[in-house]
Design a protein that fits this description.
MetI-like fold, 13 helices, mainly alpha
């Protein structure tokens, strides 16, 4: 019976791997057929040499980095304060963080356009509105990752110990809490990074340069370059996941202690 369970576990794991990687493999092989008669990287060369790619890909990376910074600044203090001071509000806050799953992105972006396209809040053409929108979309992932990290440590004991040594709230937050939830913050940050890199609706309707609208435009006009751009996007996201493992690999034993 035990052997049968192991076999089924391996079966479902292999099936899941095939389900995920076979489409990627097919996309990669298709992207190599840009030159008639043999496999090559011409599609990738075309993408990297495209002036639009050189503008929109770095722009998406910039939006992603700024979104991560804003999300960390907003959600780490919020999750910490809720857990420490108002735990009874945790259910309400968690419900609020789920709203991006409930409200369609197209409805959300039209709400932003209608609200911020007239005085006194005429900021619809500002990159700040795009970053704010991305921050809201990343909220379920970032907030919950941070909250999970806070659950793994004794927030109250660490706070009281730091206060007994004369630390202020800024010192407690940045020198005690941040280091102990670094892996959780990184996890939420790279999930947010993946969302920003792949999100189409906000960038398209707020008319900002971004990678997802660029891929959509390629699909309309090219055959092999969209596949190449998709593989580039996946490679970047997986590289980010590798960074999580490298940075967080040695910190598994530190999440319960103070600094």
């Amino acid at each position: 019976m035990k052997r049968s369970g192991v076999i089924w576990s391996w079966f479902w794991m292999i099936l899941g791997i095939l389900y995920f990687f076979l489409p990627l493999l097919a996309t990669f092989l298709f992207s190599l057929r840009a030159e008639l008669g043999h496999l090559g990287f011409k599609a990738y060369t075309n993408v990297f040499s495209d002036p639009q790619f050189q503008i929109k890909f770095p722009a998406s990376i910039l939006w992603a980095v700024l979104t991560i910074i804003v999300a960390i600044v907003l959600f780490v203090p919020t999750a910490y304060w809720v857990r420490l001071k108002v735990p009874q509000a945790r259910s309400a806050v968690e419900l609020i963080t789920l709203l991006p799953f409930v409200i369609p992105a197209i409805v959300y972006v039209f709400g932003l356009v209608r609200t911020f396209s007239q005085p006194p809040l005429l900021i619809v053409n500002s990159p700040g509105l795009l970053i704010a929108g991305y921050t809201v979309l990343s909220m379920p992932y970032m907030y919950r990752a941070i909250d999970t990290g806070l659950r793994a440590i004794d927030v109250r004991t660490l706070t009281e110990a730091a206060q007994s040594l004369g630390a202020g709230w800024g010192t407690i937050l940045f020198r005690v809490i941040f280091p102990n939830i670094r892996v959780s913050i990184l996890s939420g940050a790279f999930l947010s990074f993946a969302i920003v890199m792949g999100e189409y609706t906000l960038a398209q309707y707020l008319a900002k340069p971004a990678f997802a609208p660029y891929i959509a435009l390629l699909i309309q006009n090219k055959a092999y370059e969209p596949a190449a751009a998709t593989i580039i996007s996946f490679a970047l996201i997986w590289a980010c996941m590798g960074i999580i493992q490298l940075i967080g690999g040695g910190e598994q034993g530190q999440v319960t202690g103070g600094h």
